[in-house]
Design goal:
Largest sheet: 5 strands, mixed
Number of strands: 9
Number of helices: 14
CATH superfamily of one domain: Glutaredoxin
Distance between the termini: 35 Å
Oligomer: single chain
Low-confidence stretches: 1-16, 23-27, 29-44, 47-53
Structural class: alpha+beta
CATH architecture of one domain: 3-Layer(aba) Sandwich
CATH class of one domain: Alpha Beta
Mean pLDDT: 86
Strand content: 5-15%
CATH topology of one domain: Glutaredoxin
Strand order of the largest sheet: 4-6-5-8-9
Order of helices and strands: HEEEHHHHHEEHHEHHHHHEEEH
């Protein structure tokens, strides 16, 4: 009974993506697929209702010997951590989707029976979407420009079809939401939550003791990381001091200057101007050589000699690599990747995707 998520159609329609993919043959057309970890420490998924840990048995002892040398289950699990986390995440997603389908089906069948119509007739009547105008289609096209030379007129009909289906899906979701509220639906399936919290070294925008903590893994040369910044600003404007955001580096292989830019950001942090430098880097993603970085340091008012000494000494190269490895060991393969109180949010999502998780956390904490 579930309608296909229209965002899938969006990706296919305009060749858009939600993130830069480390493992994608198309470079920045990949998407983030798995959660990340805290810097310098292994992260684990909470098993409070989400069921992630129960999918994979924790075993101990020796799993193999090679020329008399033991390979232990602990070594095996560490090496396979990225793939195991994907499996845990997939298991949770399957449970969540199936539970939603079961709830929605039960509610729709009950409502249809009460009205004396079929479920299909009920959905058709209640999921009507407003007709999409040419102006709305053009605005969507301009806000989400596809790669390459693509003419709007060639895409107009497909865009309008996509937006119409989205309106219908939104109408259906609103109708289902009303049925759930009226039925007093309670869900006890906890979100898959990872042990990802602010570290002392993290640059944080907001209070480090904010009740809603967002940890971002990002790449200064990833266009989708830049694209999500206005959304993050909207999140902070909307939720105020309830929310804080920490930044960590996850430089991707195709972005050769990103590790250096990440280290330069930490050099700026030494002088208390990480976020100012962060903003300039995202405004200049195609120009991040050492000379460029020094120029940006001057623009944000950093002490030139101190910044240059920090940069040329490679002071923070290991820290950037530690950021990357901490994500990699639990499956991060693209950017941006977010954790809202440990709940994973994938890619450059719209504000509503962040708000959904934040609102649930606010309710959970009775804020």
């Amino acid at each position: 009974m579930r309608m296909t998520d229209p965002r899938i159609g969006l990706s296919l329609l305009l060749a858009l993506a939600i993130g830069c993919g480390g493992g994608s043959s198309t470079g920045d057309a990949g998407s983030t697929t798995a959660p990340a970890a805290t810097t310098g420490a292994a992260s684990t998924a909470s098993s409070q209702g989400g069921g992630g840990d129960s999918v994979i048995d924790t075993l101990t002892g020796v799993v193999a010997k090679v020329s008399g040398v033991d390979i232990t289950y602990s070594q095996l699990d560490e090496k396979a951590a990225a793939r195991l986390v994907r499996l845990k995440t997939q298991a949770y997603d399957i449970r969540k989707q199936t539970l939603d389908e079961m709830i929605d089906t039960q509610l729709l069948e009950a409502e249809a029976k009460k009205r004396g119509i079929t479920v299909d007739e009920l959905v058709a009547a209640e999921a009507k979407g407003a007709e999409v105008s040419d102006e709305e289609a053009r605005a969507f096209f301009e806000k989400n420009p596809p790669r390459g030379e693509v003419d709007y007129e060639r895409m107009k009909d497909r865009i309008k079809d996509y937006l119409q289906k989205k309106n219908e899906a939104d109408g259906r979701s609103a109708f289902i939401g009303g049925l759930r509220a009226a039925a007093g639906v309670e869900i006890f399936l906890e979100p898959l939550r990872f042990d990802v919290a602010f570290a002392d070294a993290d640059p944080v925008k907001g209070s480090k003791v904010a009740p809603i903590q967002i940890v971002e893994y990002s790449d200064f040369q990833c266009p989708y990381c830049s694209r999500v910044n206005p959304t993050l600003a909207q999140v902070q404007e909307t939720y105020g001091d309830k929310v804080a955001i920490a930044f960590r580096n996850y430089p991707l292989p195709m972005h050769k200057d990103a590790p250096r830019a990440g280290a330069a950001g930490y050099c700026a942090q030494d002088q208390g101007k990480f976020w100012e430098f962060h903003d300039v880097l995202f405004e200049n993603q195609r120009a991040q050589t050492d000379d460029d970085l020094k120029k940006y340091a001057a623009e944000v008012g950093l002490a030139a000699a101190d910044f240059e000494a920090c940069l040329t000494s490679n002071k923070y190269a290991e820290r950037v690599e530690a950021d990357r490895l901490s994500g990699e060991m639990v499956g991060v393969s693209g950017t941006p990747a977010f954790f809202i109180n440990g709940v994973f949010v994938n890619g450059a999502r719209p504000f509503e995707a962040f708000a959904e998780v934040i609102d649930e956390e606010i309710a959970r904490k009775s804020l």
